[in-house]
Amino acid sequence: MAYPLELGFQDATSPIMEELLHFHDHTLMIVFLISSLVLYIISLMLTTKLTHTSTMDAQEVETIWTILPAIILILIALPSLRILYMMDEINNPSLTVKTMGHQWYWSYEYTDYEDLNFDSYMVPTSELTPGDLRLLEVDNRVVLPMELPVRMLISSEDVLHSWTVPSLGLKTDAIPGRLNQATLTSTRPGLYYGQCSEICGSNHSFMPIVLEMVPLKHFENWSSSML
Question: Where is the Cytochrome oxidase subunit II transmembrane region profile domain (predicted)?
Answer without folding.
Answer: 1-91
